[in-house]
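Researcher: First entry.
Model:
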Amino acid sequence: MLELIQKGGIIMIFIILVSLIATIIIIERLIYFRRIRTDEETLISRLKSTLQKAHFDEALSICENNPCPITNLMKVGIEHRIYPKHVVREAILDAASLETPSLERYLSALGTIAHIAPLLGLLGTVTGNIRAFGVLGAFGAVGDPGLLAKGISEALITTAAGIIVSIPAIIFYNYLVSKVNHMILRMENRVNELVRLLGGKE
């Protein structure tokens, strides 16, 4: 690691830093989606049973003690249950739109890292080549060609590092965006189900 930093210079430090940030974001998002997916199945089953018995206070308590996108929607629906169904549906849809930012949290940062990592690598290569040619110029035309080759090979390390960081970042970014879109569609499909469970006036 220290050798890579020495060869790549300060740009390599930035590449390593953004790679660590990307890794943290990916792990955090995967854990978050796994947790809310597992919680959702259990909670929906509990809430259905509770609502079918018209135990609305108990259902509200379940929602408040287990905050996640689906329970937040359910809480809004329960609180608006005395209104006509179309009002309940609108309230739940509005709540669903407020849940989207929490699902998309950090994804813009991950997308940015995926795009700037190869650019950082290219920048490191350019600055490394400038240094390499500067050294060659100092020695003149009779300088050792091996010195130039060594400088260029070291400069290319940052490009390779930038691409290595960018590829998994792009893959996980696309995967997580797709997962968010799927979850948003699933939440929208839950709206009618929630309205039916809550009953209410037409």
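Researcher: Second entry.
Model:
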Amino acid sequence: MKRTLWIAMSLLLCVPAAKAGSRPDWVDGNSRQYPRDKYLVGVGMGDDRATASDRARSEISKIFTTNVNVTTNLNESESSSKQGSKTENSFSQAISQSLQTASRKVLEGVEVAENWKDGATMQQYALAVLDRSKALAAVKDKIDDFDKQAQQWKSQMDSASDKVGKVKAAMKLLALLKARTELNGEVRVLDPGGKTIPSPFDEAAVRAEAAKTVAELDVIVDIKEGK
């Protein structure tokens, strides 16, 4: 009886050790604890825990790596319309900074949830996770902000009586629409169904109207220069 009891206790003591050393499901890309419909996940591997953790975070960061071209696009519009100015450049830089800030805020939510060491290879593994719902909330807040600004500049473009004021509003509106598209790309990544946030107005029509406004000013400038 005592021998049977000793064997049973020995088996119980061995269970935690075996579980601790077993290969976690997330190492192969799928985690029951952090399902992909609720989390974005990244797995990193390295010779030490710090390296593995950094690489896991990097896997998630790659999803949000965005080359912000708002400044370039706005400068091209200014150049074509002969209306380059520090005011417009400052606005463009502010929009670009807002995009970067929003992306950083999302990535601040990335956490290393688990680490595991492969006893056979001595390699370290790390699992980084990002809660989709929390990240989505941060991006949606910034899109709401851009939508409010875009509405204001569209109203100014429609109501401006002078061509210069009209084209400046049009260029700022185009910059905001570009920024909104970038953020909607992140929404598509974060939303489990790949959905985006509908615009409060017909973006295609507004873009065409704003571009036409800039082009009309360009024609006026060219006529004046030809005299």
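Model: Note on the second entry: Residues 25-220 form one domain.
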